[in-house]
Specification:
Layout (H helix, E strand, L loop, with lengths): L1 E6 L5 E6 L8 E4 L9 E3 L3 E4 L10 E8 L7 E5 L6 E3 L14 E9 L4 E10 L2 E11 L6 E10 L3 E10 L18 H4 L8 E2 L1 E10 L2 E9 L6 E10 L4 E6 L3 E10 L5 E12 L4 H15 L1 H15 L4 E3 L3 H10 L1
Parallel strand pairs: 1-21, 7-14
Antiparallel strand pairs: 1-2, 3-9, 4-5, 5-6, 6-7, 8-13, 9-10, 10-11, 11-12, 12-20, 13-19, 15-16, 16-17, 17-20, 18-19
Amino acid sequence: MVARWIFALGLSLTCRDVAQADDPSFVLQTDNPQPYTAAYLGNGAISVVTAPLGTEPARSFLAGAYDHSAGDVPRIASAPAWNEVDINNGFRWLNADLTHSGIEHYRQALDMYNGLLHTTYIWSDRGKNIQIDAEEFVSRDRAQLAATRVTVTPEFAGELTIRFPLRNWPPPRRYQLEKIQKLEGEAAKNQWAIWYPGRLDVTALDVERTSRGLLMSLGATAPGYRNRLGEAIAIDWTGAAEVELHKDTESAEAQLHLNVKRGESYTFTKFAFLVISDASGATQAAKQSAIIARQAGWHALLGASEAAWHALWDSDLLVEGNPDLQRSIHSML
């Protein structure tokens, strides 16, 4: 129970105690993956764009990480995608189908009170059904931590492949906005063409098997700045799996090959830690912190993050008699 302010339009402010946990004005939800309007999970230091299936690679932005490439204006840089969990049912990869065909019983909810994105659906493809439950949060009490967890329950027995990519974004089509006097070409017709995120330059990549699972990491620099990014992901899972590792200059990937049983659930968890620093050692610091996060575990980290969100919501603004406006206010606070 926490104190909240009530704002009756045109009246006065008062205070009362209410239960927030089940308040629908804290929840934004959809029952269809398209059309889709993305939202953000964030804590002031890290943000990640939400995605329809909760498994696709998503843009993630960090405070203090900017790209000032020659001729262009400074742009907030998008960190290499850390959150992707892709699934192959023996026919195709889940994230490859941008039309979301075969997605049934879909629901996604953004819980603003707990700071959690929760997506559930059934992926039905050529007679193979997989129940998918995806959760994601950016920690409110640990500024550089984010995590995602995907549980799959196949309604068949056989082979299932899960992959965890860590890859940089492709270079944008840049415009020399520091120099040009007039927009031309596509930018003249569509000004969204100049609203692209910055990109970091990856300098080192690694993926390794550990006693507790997998550890993926990279180092990157910000063009035009001294800042360095250290990004690390500690991964664990349930069930026996054959592990396959790949890496090149721009990406690293781990694949798990599992022989699954019908109706049995398998959970895959990624603990990501992102460090921005103007000194060396950012990658090593990120790796150590990601390992510590994995040791703490999903439930402990999420519980601490939720408690921090609840404390933040101790101060709230209420509008009586208008639930839609109340939800809009909560989405902006």
